[in-house]
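Something for you to look into today, if you have time. Could you write out one complete protein record for me, on any chain you like? Leave the record below and I will have a look.
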Amino acid sequence: MNSSTHNENDILGKYINPERIEKAPEGMAEKIMTRIQLERAPLIITGRFRLNVVVPVMSAIITLTLVLFAVLFSSPSDNTVISGIIKSIRNLNFTIPEIKMDTFSGFSLPATVIYLVIGFFILTLFDRALNIMFNRRRK
C-alpha cells in the first residue's frame, strides 16, 4: 500500500499534508510578542517569609530536637556531665495546684451557657472584622 492510498483512508492525513509548508500571516509574531509583554507577571513580594522555606526549617528543627533527646536520654554512664544534669532533672518535683471550686459556686448552668454564647458571638464578630480587614489589603 502506497502513501497516497494510506492518506485517503486516514481522515487526519486528508487535512495534513507534510509536503505543503504554510507560513504564518504577516505581523503574527509581533502580535503574539506584544500580548506576552502585556500580560501581568506574578507579583513578587520581597521581605516576606516564603512558604517553601517553612517545611525544611521545621524538619531541621524537629530532627535536631530528636537528636538532642537521643543524646540526653540515652543510657549515660555515671561519669558524664549529662548524667548529672539528668539526675538533677529527675529530682525536680512538679505539683499541680489545687483548684478550689468555691469561686464557681455562684454560677448556675443556664447563666454559664448564656455567657458562653455571648462570648462566642463576640469572638465571631471579631474574627469577621479581622477577616474583612486582612482580605481588603490583598485586593
